[in-house]
Specification:
- The complex is a heterodimer.
- By secondary structure, chain A is an alpha+beta fold.
- In chain A, about 55% of the residues lie in helices and about 15% in strands.
- Chain A is built from 25 helices and 23 strands.
- In chain A, helix 1 packs across helix 2, helix 15 packs across helix 24 and helix 21 runs parallel beside helix 24.
- By secondary structure, chain B is α+β, with helices and mostly antiparallel strands.
- Helices cover about 55% and strands about 15% of the residues of chain B.
- In chain B, strand 2 and strand 3 form a beta hairpin.
- Classes of the chains: A alpha+beta, B alpha+beta.
- The interface between A and B is medium-sized, with 22 and 20 residues.
Chain lengths: ~900, ~120
C-alpha cells in the first residue's frame, strides 16, 4: 500500500478524491502502527512489515472502504440535488404567487400555444408516426401498375405473375374495393365491402376476434359464399352476438355465411365494414390482363428493402410487357411501402402545419421572454441580495429557470386540456382524404411530447432573461442595492435583447401571415373554379341494385326508369337525372376505344377516356350545357340506334379539326365475356365537368344511354324548387315503394359534394389562418407591450425633452419611429425567410405562385399596420407626460 | 445497506467499543484501536479489517461523523467524533451490556463454584 502513487492525492485539488482518502487513512494507520512497533524496539523495516502483517488484507479492505465511500458520496449528491430542486420549486412558487397577474398572462399564453402544438402533434402522431396496426408493418408494401407515370390498380393476371415470380416478396394478397347492399338484418343498408384473396389477413398478420378468415380454396368460383365481418358492423347489426358465426347474411341479394369477425380497429384498406373472398374465374381472368381492378399488397422477405423490391418488380413488369404486348404495352410495375402509400400525400401539409404551430409557440416564447426581461428591473434587487448572501451564479440561473419551467409546465398542463378539446374539433372538421384521422387522440406519446415541449419552452424563454439578470445582479450589485431597486441602471443590454426578440417574433409572424395568405388565396381560387355544373338546389342519392334480383339489363333499366319517373312526379322536383359516377367524387372508369373509319392503331397507342352511363335529362338536371347537337333523350332505348355524347375536352383531344357528330365509337369493354362491346354514334357535345377535383383539368368523357347500356350502380340527382335536403325522405319512400330491400345511402346535396371535394385544402387553410391570426395578435401585444415598458422607463427623459420644448408630435414620432425600426427589420427578415420557406408549400397551392408578390406585400403591409397601431397607445401616453411631474418624480 | 450490527454480539460489541473510545474526544482510527488495546491490556484486539468498515457504518447511522484534520505528529488524518445520537446509543447499549454482563457474572459466580 505504501507504493500507492503519491501523485494521486493531488487529484483532490479538483474536488473530493475518495480513493486517495482511503489510501491516506490506511497509510496513516500503518505508519502509526509501525511507529508503535519501533518504539518497542523493532528495526524500522521490520516494524513496517509487522504493521502491514497486522493490518491484514490491505487491498480487500481498502477496496471495500472505497466502494462504501463512493456509494455514500453518490447518495449525498443525489440528496443535495433533490433538496436544491425542492428549494428552487418553493422559491418559484413564491415568485409566482407574488405576481399573479404576470403569471396568469404567461400561463394563458403558453397554455394556448402549447395546446395548439399538442393538438397538431396528436394529428401528426396518429396519421404519420403511429405504426400501422399490422404485424411488422415496416415490411408491408403495396404493388402497383405504373401507367403514364401514375400508380394505378392492377389486373389480376399481372398481379398473380408478379407475386409468383418475385423473389423479394414473401407473400402477397390482392383486394378490390367496393360496396354491397346488406339485407335481412334490420333496414337495408349499403356498406363498404372489400373482396380479398385468402392470404390477405395473413399478409397483414391480423387474427380474427371470432371465428376464422378465408380458406385458400374459397377464392375459387362456385364455393359457398362466406363473409368476415368488421367489428363495427358486428356491434351495430348483430348486437355483438358471439353466436353469429355460421349465420347467414344477404349481400346484394345473395346468401353468405358469416365465418369470422375482425377485432376493432381493423378496417383495411379503409373504413371497411366486411370482407368477402375475391373470386378468380381463371377462364375470365386469363383474358382480362387488361382489366385493372385489384390492389396488390405484399410482405417483403426479411432483409429485403423496399428499393430492392421495387427494382425487381419493375424488371418483372418489363418481362410481362414483352410477353403480353397487347395488354401490357407501356405498363410498368412498382412497389411502395404501405405507410407511404397511405400517408405520403398528407405528410407535407401536416408537417407544414406542425412547423406553423411551432412558429406560434416561438413567438409566444419571445413575448414571454420580453415580459420577463421587463420585470427583471424589479427583480434585480432580489438577485443582488441573494448573490450577496452567497448564492452562486449557476445556482441563481437554475433558480430562475426553475421558475420559468414551472410556469411553462403549468401552461403545458392546461394546454393538454385544451388540446384534448382541440383534437375533437379538428376531427369534427372531417377533412376528406386524411387517413387514420379517427384514431387521433391525446395518448402517452402526445403527453410525453407536450411535457418535452413545455420544458424546452420554459428554458427557451427563461434562459436569456435569467442570464441577463444574474450578469447584472453580480456586476451591478452595489449599485443595485443602493438604488433601492428602482432600476436606475442604464439598461442598454436589456434593451438590445428585447429589440432582437421583437424583430424575431415579427419575422416569424410575417412568415406565417404570408403562408396563410397564399393558402387563403389558393383556396379562394379553387372555390371560384367552375365545376361545369350547377350544384345549387340539387340532391344526389347513390343507388345500387343487386344482380341476384335484377338478373338482366331489362330489369335494371326498367327499375331506374320507373324510379326516375316517380321521383320526377314528386312535388318540388323540377327535373331528375342519373349517372353512373357523379362528378368530383374521384370515381369513374376509363376505357380504351376506337373510332370507326380510322386506321387501326397498335394496342399501346389506343386512346382512352372516362366513360359514364347517363339517363335522359341528366345534363339538363345538372345544368351542363349542350354545346352542339343533342344530349341523350328518352327515345335512346333498346331498338333505337345506339348513341353517345362526348364532352368538349374529348372533342378537342380526339377530333381536332373535324366534326365528331355522326362518328361511331366502340369501347374496348362490353357486357358478358368481352364480346359485344359498348358502342354508339356521337349525337352531341356537352360542356366539360370536373370529375377528379376542382384543381384538376376536366378529362375527356363519353356518355352512353342508360336505357341502352344499363349498369347496376347509379347516382340519382334531383333538381328541386324547395330546399333539396327536404326531399330526402320522399326519395327514400319512392325507392322503397318499388323495392323495399334496396338501401338508400349517401343522400347529400351537390353543394355538400363540392364542399367535401375541397375539405382538405380548407382544413389546412383554416388552421394556417388561425395560427397566423394568433401570431399577429401575439406580435402586436409583443411590440405594444415593449414600447409601453420603454415609455414607462423613460418618463424622466421624455419629461426633460418636453421641458426643453419637444412638441407632442415630436414625442409621438420618437416612440413610433423606434418601434417601427424594429418592425421594419422584422418584416424584411420575415419576407426573406418566407421567400425561402414558401417554396415548400408550392405543391399545395392552386393558381398562385409560392412567391406571389401581391401576397408578400399585403402580408408585410398588414403586419406593419398592426405593429404601428400597437405602438400608438404607448406613444400617446408618452406625449401626455407632464414634464413637471416627471421631473419631480425622482 | 450494510448488515445491521445489532443481534450479532461481536459486531454490536465492536460498535460500543468504538463509541466508548470516542467518548473522550475526536480520534483517528489508529487511536481508537490503540485505546481499546491499552485499556483492555491487549485482551481485546480490534482487527483493522473490521474497524474501518465499522466506523463507516456508524457514520452512516449518524453515530459518528468524520473530518480530515492534523494528527499529533502533524500528519493529515481522518478524525472521528461522537455525535449526540452516538452518545445516546452508547449509553443505552452500555446499560444493556452491563446488565447482561452482570447477570452472566452472577450466574458464573453462583454455587457450586467453578474449580
Amino acid at each position: 500500500m505504501s507504493d500507492a502513487p503519491r501523485w494521486r492525492r493531488y487529484l483532490r485539488f479538483w474536488g473530493p478524491n475518495l480513493d486517495a482518502d482511503v489510501d491516506d487513512e490506511v497509510q496513516f494507520h500503518l505508519d502509526m502502527r509501525a511507529h508503535e512497533f519501533e518504539a518497542r524496539g523493532m528495526a524500522p523495516d521490520a516494524a513496517k512489515r509487522a504493521a502491514v502483517e497486522r493490518f491484514g488484507d490491505i487491498d480487500t479492505i481498502s477496496s471495500a472502504l472505497r466502494t462504501h465511500d463512493e456509494r455514500r458520496h453518490r447518495e449525498r449528491q443525489r440528496r443535495d440535488i433533490v433538496s436544491e430542486l425542492m428549494q428552487d420549486l418553493r422559491l418559484a412558487l413564491r415568485g409566482i404567487r407574488r405576481s399573479p397577474a404576470f403569471a396568469a398572462v404567461v400561463i394563458a399564453t403558453l397554455a394556448l400555444c402549447i395546446g395548439a402544438n399538442t393538438a397538431i402533434f396528436s394529428v401528426v402522431n396518429a396519421v404519420l408516426l403511429a405504426p400501422l396496426p399490422y404485424r411488422d408493418p415496416g415490411a408491408l408494401v403495396r404493388v402497383y401498375h405504373v401507367w403514364e407515370g401514375k400508380k394505378v390498380v392492377m389486373s389480376p393476371p399481372n398481379f398473380i405473375d408478379v407475386a409468383k415470380q418475385s423473389r423479394s416478396l414473401a407473400e402477397a394478397a390482392a383486394f378490390a374495393g367496393g360496396s354491397v347492399n346488406v339485407t335481412g338484418v334490420g333496414d337495408p343498408v349499403r356498406v363498404s365491402g372489400v373482396e380479398t384473396s385468402a392470404s390477405f389477413f395473413h399478409v397483414l398478420g391480423v387474427q380474427p376476434a371470432l371465428g376464422r378468415t378465408f380458406l385458400p380454396d374459397e377464392n375459387e368460383p362456385g364455393r359457398t359464399k362466406v363473409v368476415v365481418l368488421g367489428h363495427a358492423i358486428w356491434q351495430q347489426r348483430f348486437g355483438s352476438s358471439r353466436t353469429v358465426i355460421g349465420s347467414p347474411m344477404y349481400l346484394d341479394g345473395e346468401r353468405y355465411t358469416i365465418v369470422g369477425v375482425m377485432p376493432s380497429g381493423f378496417d383495411m384498406p379503409r373504413k371497411t365494414d366486411l370482407w368477402t373472398p375475391l373470386t378468380y374465374d381463371v377462364a375470365f381472368t386469363a383474358k382480362s390482363r387488361g382489366a385493372w381492378y385489384v390492389n396488390g399488397i405484399a410482405r417483403l422477405k426479411p432483409g429485403v428493402t423496399e428499393q430492392d423490391a421495387a427494382t425487381e418488380v419493375a424488371l418483372i413488369g418489363k418481362q410481362l410487357e414483352k410477353q403480353y404486348p397487347d395488354d401490357n404495352a407501356k405498363l410498368g410495375m412498382s412497389v411502395t411501402s404501405m405507410r407511404e402509400a397511405m400517408v405520403g400525400d398528407v405528410r407535407k401539409p401536416l408537417v407544414i402545419l406542425l412547423c406553423a404551430v411551432g412558429f406560434v409557440l416561438l413567438i409566444a416564447c419571445a413575448n414571454v421572454a420580453n415580459l420577463l426581461l421587463a420585470r427583471s428591473t424589479t427583480r434585480q434587487t432580489e438577485m443582488a441580495l441573494r448573490s450577496a448572501l452567497g448564492a452562486g451564479r449557476r445556482r441563481l440561473v437554475r433558480q430562475l429557470l426553475t421558475e420559468s419551467v414551472l410556469l411553462s409546465l403549468i401552461g403545458g398542463g392546461l394546454g393538454l386540456l385544451l388540446a384534448s378539446w382541440g383534437v375533437k374539433m379538428l376531427v369534427a372538421l372531417q377533412p376528406r382524404g386524411i387517413p387514420r384521422l379517427d384514431t387521433v387522440r391525446v395518448d402517452g406519446t402526445v403527453m410525453a411530447f407536450t411535457a418535452a415541449v413545455a420544458v424546452l419552452t420554459g428554458i427557451a424563454f427563461g434562459i436569456a432573461p435569467a442570464l441577463q439578470l444574474v450578469r447584472r445582479g453580480g456586476s451591478g450589485l452595489a449599485l443595485s442595492l443602493r438604488a433601492g431597486g428602482r432600476g436606475m441602471l442604464s439598461d442598454w443590454g436589456g434593451r438590445r435583447l428585447r429589440g432582437a426578440l421583437i424583430v424575431a417574433e415579427i419575422a416569424l409572424a410575417l412568415v406565417l401571415l404570408t403562408c396563410a395568405g397564399l393558402m387563403l388565396q389558393s383556396f379562394a381560387r379553387l372555390q371560384s373554379v367552375d365545376p361545369g355544373f350547377h350544384p345549387e338546389q340539387r340532391l344526389a342519392i347513390d343507388m345500387s341494385v343487386p344482380r341476384a334480383t335484377y338478373q338482366n339489363d331489362e330489369k335494371v333499366a326498367g327499375f331506374y326508369e320507373r324510379l326516375l319517373e316517380r321521383l320526377a312526379a314528386q312535388p318540388g322536383t323540377r327535373s331528375v337525372g342519373a349517372i353512373s359516377a357523379l362528378p368530383l367524387t374521384n370515381f369513374g372508369f376509363t376505357f380504351t376505344f376506337s373510332i370507326d373509319g380510322r386506321p387501326p392503331v397498335k394496342p399501346e397507342d389506343q386512346p382512352s377516356m372516362q366513360t359514364r352511363i347517363i339517363s335522359a335529362d341528366y345534363h339538363r338536371t345538372l345544368g351542363i350545357p349542350v354545346v352542339r347537337g343533342r344530349t341523350i333523350t328518352a327515345g335512346d332505348r333498346v331498338g333505337a340506334p345506339l348513341v353517345a355524347v362526348i364532352n368538349e375536352a374529348a372533342a378537342k383531344r380526339f377530333f381536332p379539326g373535324e366534326d365528331p357528330i355522326g362518328k361511331h365509337v366502340k369501347l374496348g369493354w362490353g357486357r358478358g365475356k368481352l364480346n359485344d362491346p359498348v358502342n354508339g354514334t356521337i349525337v352531341g357535345i356537352v360542356g366539360d365537368v370536373k370529375g377528379f377535383g376542382l384543381d384538376q383539368e376536366a378529362q375527356p368523357e363519353i356518355d352512353f344511354s342508360m336505357m341502352q347500356n344499363p349498369v347496376t350502380n347509379m347516382s340519382i340527382v334531383l333538381r328541386t324548387d324547395v330546399p333539396p335536403a327536404s326531399l330526402a325522405a320522399a326519395a327514400r319512400r319512392e325507392v322503397h315503394a318499388l323495392d323495399p330491400s334496396l338501401p338508400v345511402t349517401d343522400v347529400r346535396t351537390l353543394e355538400r359534394l363540392v364542399a367535401d371535394s375541397v375539405s382538405q385544402p380548407k382544413f389546412y387553410m383554416l388552421l394556417l389562418g388561425i395560427f397566423a391570426g394568433v401570431a399577429l395578435v401575439l406580435a402586436a401585444v409583443g411590440i405594444g407591450g415593449m414600447m409601453s415598458f420603454a415609455v414607462a422607463q423613460r418618463t424622466r427623459e421624455i419629461g426633460i425633452r418636453v421641458a426643453l420644448g419637444a412638441s407632442r408630435a415630436g414625442v409621438i414620432g420618437l416612440v413610433v419611429s423606434e418601434a417601427m425600426r424594429l418592425a421594419v427589420a422584422g418584416v424584411v427578415l420575415g419576407a426573406l425567410a418566407a421567400a425561402a420557406l414558401s417554396r415548400a408549400m408550392a405543391s399545395l397551392l392552386f393558381g398562385i405562385g409560392a412567391r406571389d408578390p401581391v401576397t408578400f406585400v399585403l402580408a408585410a403591409a398588414l403586419l406593419s399596420a398592426v405593429a404601428f397601431a400597437a405602438t400608438l397607445l404607448p406613444a400617446r401616453r408618452a406625449a401626455s407626460v407632464d414634464p413637471a411631474t416627471a421631473l419631480r418624480a425622482d | 445497506m450494510p448488515p445491521r450490527d445489532t443481534g450479532d454480539l461481536l459486531q454490536g460489541t465492536l460498535g460500543i467499543l468504538i463509541l466508548k473510545a470516542l467518548l473522550a474526544g475526536p480520534a483517528h482510527g489508529y487511536a481508537v484501536a490503540r485505546w481499546v488495546e491499552v485499556t483492555t491490556g491487549d485482551v481485546l484486539r480490534i482487527e483493522e479489517g473490521s474497524l474501518y468498515p465499522a466506523l463507516r457504518r456508524l457514520e452512516d447511522k449518524g453515530r459518528v461523523k468524520s473530518e480530515w484534520g492534523l494528527s499529533e505528529n502533524n500528519r493529515r488524518a481522518r478524525f472521528y467524533t461522537l455525535t449526540g445520537a452516538g452518545r445516546a446509543h452508547l449509553e443505552s447499549e452500555a446499560a444493556v451490556w452491563l446488565r447482561y454482563a452482570g447477570a452472566v457474572t452472577r450466574v458464573l459466580r453462583a454455587d457450586p463454584a467453578l474449580a
